[in-house]
Every structure is written in structure tokens, then in C-alpha cells.
Amino acid sequence: MLMTENSMELDEQTKCADLLTMCAGRVYWLAMALMDNKEVAERLTQQWFDVLVNFNRTFDVWLARWACKMAIKACADKKRSELVADRRNANVWINAIHVLKLDKRDSLHDLSLECVQRSVRLLPVLPRFMFVMHVLERYPVQEAASMLKLDSDTCDAALAYALVAMTKHIESSEGTSWSKSHSAA
């Protein structure tokens, strides 16, 4: 099959559109998980999507990563007072882990993105940001702490809490709001 110049150009445009769509979806998912507010997530997604489109250059992975980083920073700025209020010393987060007992170790193979997002949204603010930034976005703990303007020991402990709490919620049969009754004091 001969590919004409027009069909190759159309293929490149389709790939670019697919990448833009995937990036917009990813920014929305992140904003929704971090903010737990649909309207704010939609505004942030539109804002960063406009930035991506108006760059008037080839879309690439770096630009998508940058857009997600800017969305995370915008969410952190909007949640600054809650992040500061949720900042506890590392020992408090570590002690809170012991309250969350894991009953079983079932396979998580049927886990959906919706279930992960719902579980992330139930976390206290700092563990929520640390889970998204470190586990989903792969920021080193020190970089995530720097972006959040918090110390890395507290962020590391909040991440440990998030991992245990997420596992507990996902494994729970009810999937109810465990964070309200089990969050760190």
C-alpha cells in the first residue's frame, strides 16, 4: 500500500490529536483526584489545554509532562492552606499507619481508574498529593516535597500513610469513607 503525502500528514495529525486528547484527559484526572471538585478540575484542564494548543509547536512527551506539572502546582497553590494545615510531623503519619490494619492480600487485578481516583480523593490532602505525585507521576519524594514547599520527612511519612490507606480502602468490601474515621489526628 502506497502512502501518499496527504495520508502521512493525516496520520501525523491524528497522532497529535490523540496525544492532545490523552494529555487533556490526564490533566483532568489529576486535577479531579487532587482537588475533588469537578468545576475546578474542568477549569484547570481547559487552562492547561489552551496553553498546550497555543504553543504552536510540535506536541511531545515533554510538553505533556510540563502541563501535568503545572496542573499539579496549580492544585497545590489552591490547596495551600489545607496542605499546611494537614502538615503533621512524620511520626504522626507513621503512627496513623498502625491504625489501618490490612486484613487480606487479595489481587488487585480488577482495579479500575475510577476506583483509584475515588480512593485517592478520600485521602487527607497531603497524603493525596504525595500519592499522586510520587506513585502516579513518578516524582522523587524530595522533588514533590520541594514543589509542595514542605519537608521531605513529613512528605515521605504522608506517602507511606497514603499507600497503606489506599490499599485498605481498595481492599475494603464496602469502599466507604474510611478516611474520616481513620485519618491521622
Task: Considering the chains and any ligands shown, give keywords for the structure.
mainly alpha, 10 helices, disordered C terminus
How would you portray this structure in words?
It is a single chain. Helix content is 75%, strand content 0%. Helix 1 (5-35) packs antiparallel against helix 2 (38-54), helix 1 (5-35) runs parallel beside helix 6 (113-122) and helix 6 crosses helix 9 (152-171). The N and C termini lie far apart (66 Å). The model is unreliable at 173-185 (pLDDT under 50). By secondary structure, it is mostly helical. It is built from ten helices and no strands.
- The portion of residues assigned to helices is over 70%
* Mean of pLDDT: 76
β-strand number: 0
Low-confidence stretches: 173-185
Order of helices and strands: HHHHHHHHHH
Specify the number of helices. Answer: 10
The largest sheet, given as strand count, sense and whether it forms a barrel, is: none
Percent range for β-strand residues: under 5%
Shape by Cα distribution? globular
Assembly context of the chains: single chain
Q: Pairing-aware structural class of the strands and helices?
A: mainly alpha
Cα Rg: 19 Å
Please report the distance between the alpha carbons of the first and last residues.
66 Å
